[in-house]
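We close this part of the discussion by returning to an individual protein. Part of our work consisted of pairing the sequence of a single chain with a tokenised description of its backbone. The amino acid sequence and the backbone structure tokens for this protein are reproduced below.
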Amino acid sequence: MEKRAGRKASRLQKRREAAAMARKRRGRIIWGIFIAVVAVLLAFSGMYYVTDIEVADNARYTDEEIIDMTCDSPLAGNTLLFSKFKSRIILDDVPFMEYVDVAMKDNHTLLLRVKEKQLVGVLSFGGLDYYFDNTGTVVETADAAAYGEEKLVPRILGLDIKRVNYGETLEIDPAVLGTITATARMIKKYQIHPDYLDYDTEDNTVSLIYGDVQVLIGGDTLLEEKMSRVAAILPQLEGETGVLHMENFAEDTVNIVFVQTDWKDNVSVETDVEAGLAEEEPEAVIEPQVEITEEGISPETAGAIQENTEENYTEPAENTPETTTETPAENPENTEGEAPAEQP
């Protein structure tokens, strides 16, 4: 009996020793894994720590604002981990924003590529601005005072819109929406943001208002060519008051007619403006054949302009005769698109 009890005690002792050895091995394995993880993290922190953040495709918010919106995660200090686990950050709660894509440009540089809502125009009703996209859907609302000087989308006049609500689609003719969308795209491309985009629903034409200058674009034919010329001409019209006629623009047009007109008193003098390009192109040698017509400003536009220019307007001297200057006749010495001297 004593021998049997001794053998049983020996087996129990061996089992206790084996269990203790197993616990030690598990402990060593766990510590090994922990040390390996720490080593990897230290390696990551040394190889992939963030020293620079670049922001692309943002227009409404500054780089610093985009960084503050997106880089509030503990992972934001590591280029590899942040770009893997936070590759797309949704910004539904930020006005005019959809999301930001995060990428690792190099081991120490993060690239934040911004996706803003694709806005086309803004309509004003009751002190609020309603921003709509290329489908005519109202995607944002804001206080009218927040429109700002940057004019990232044109303020639309002339449309007969009866109902505007956030999330709803405007009751607007698809052809009209298409023309406004195409014009807004060219405005953004050439960075020539107007005070207003006035759409005339009677003849389906567009005009752009820049201070006291109205640009008659007409229809959306040759739209990119027209807008390229407008971008080149606008600096020449700084401080002027009148109408720039682009509605009869053709591919062989060299000079564009600018009618110096006071929209209140309808006094006008016709001059030519050189129709250059925003970027260089081969020199034109064909004299223009542009039909010159006087066009009135739509009531909506007149009211909007008067509101902005009334304070700075100076009444013309009494008995000022209405004068016009004929378009210069063809002149073989003026084939390079130079603006002729202004008539007295």
Confidence is low (pLDDT under 50) at residues 278-296, 309-344. The helical segments are 2-47, 63-70, 79-85, 174-190, 223-233, 299-309. Residues 268 and 294 are 9 Å apart (CA to CA).
